[in-house]
Specification:
Layout: H1 2-23, H2 29-47, H3 57-71, H4 75-78, H5 86-114, H6 122-137, H7 140-151, H8 155-179, H9 183-191, H10 196-231, H11 239-247, H12 251-281
Helix pairs in contact: 3-12, 5-8, 5-10, 6-8, 7-8, 8-10, 9-10, 10-12, 11-12
């Protein structure tokens, strides 16, 4: 009986302590109110510059044409084998994304190690971080417009553009993985008398491999969608043909391109998600 009473008293004391702590919680209602006021001010200021005057006659006809094209696509274009048909252009788009991702992922490795504060002194690491930041600040379309002057229109421009753009994002993710390395493993290998190569082989690479591959696959998803956009400015892929069909109002061909893109993106998304889960959780 005495033990039960002690337990009850202990529970009551804990509840009282929790209640006292809740009563002493920081009163930050004024801070939350200020944040809400700032958000409403920003929304009001941003919406003041938006003027919606309804759909134009041209815009309405384009929307109807796109819907008609999606519901009645050009099947001959969708399943053709020529270099202007959907399968060939989709393969070219995917090839641009694959090469751009691979080159970007490989080039990002030295950038990431040189920008990691646990590898190099902070002043040197921050210099390389600034370079990575500068790469990331320029949109992919701007990079494409610059490189198209060097290589000319075509898939080569798309590959170079995606390689450069991939360096910016992939390097940032690589840096996080490198700085989260478990140094105790390296210390244990050092105590065992391992050489620097052995420490990298057995202590560093196993820790980074899964993270690096997962980041690369995620970037490939982004590059696959960007490859279509880059095609609009002449950087190869299906984007250029899609824009030409939109401008000439060939809606059945537009529908064929859109269906091809949707199917390709869904397949790649499914496969990449399964691979990332396998790497992260072993599922």
């Amino acid at each position: 009986m005495a033990e039960k009473l002690e337990k009850i008293e202990k529970v009551i004391d804990e509840k009282l302590t929790a209640a006292e702590m809740y009563a002493r919680r920081p009163r930050k209602w004024w801070l939350y109110l200020l944040i809400v006021l700032i958000l409403f001010t920003l929304i009001g200021w941003s919406s003041s510059s938006i003027e919606y005057e309804g759909l134009t006659v041209t815009g309405r006809s384009v929307a109807q044409g796109v819907v008609s094209g999606i519901t009645h696509p050009d099947l001959k274009l969708m399943f053709g084998t020529g270099d202007t048909d959907v399968p060939y252009l989709l393969l070219q788009t995917m090839a641009i994304a694959v090469l751009g991702t691979l080159f970007g992922a490989i080039l990002a490795i030295p950038f990431a190690f040189l920008a990691s504060t646990n590898i190099l002194p902070k002043p040197i690491a921050y210099i390389f971080r600034i370079v990575i930041l500068l790469i990331r600040t320029i949109p992919s379309l701007v990079w494409a417009l610059m490189w198209i002057r060097v290589t000319g229109p075509g898939a080569a421009c798309g590959v170079i553009t995606q390689s450069v753009c991939s360096i910016g994002m992939i390097s940032k993710m690589y840096i996080t993985a490198i700085e989260d390395l478990d140094t105790r493993i390296l210390e244990s290998l050092d105590a065992m008398g391992c050489t620097p190569f052995q420490k990298i082989r057995y202590g560093v690479i196993p820790q980074l491999t899964a993270s690096f591959i997962s980041t690369t696959i995620y970037r490939f998803d982004i590059n696959l969608k960007d490859a279509t956009t880059l095609g609009i400015v002449g950087a190869g892929g299906i984007g250029a043909s899609l824009v030409q069909c939109l401008n000439s109002r060939r809606w059945a061909m537009v529908g064929a391109f859109v269906w091809g893109l949707m199917v390709l993106v869904l397949i790649i998304e499914f496969l990449s998600t399964r691979i990332r889960k396998k790497l992260a959780r072993g599922e």
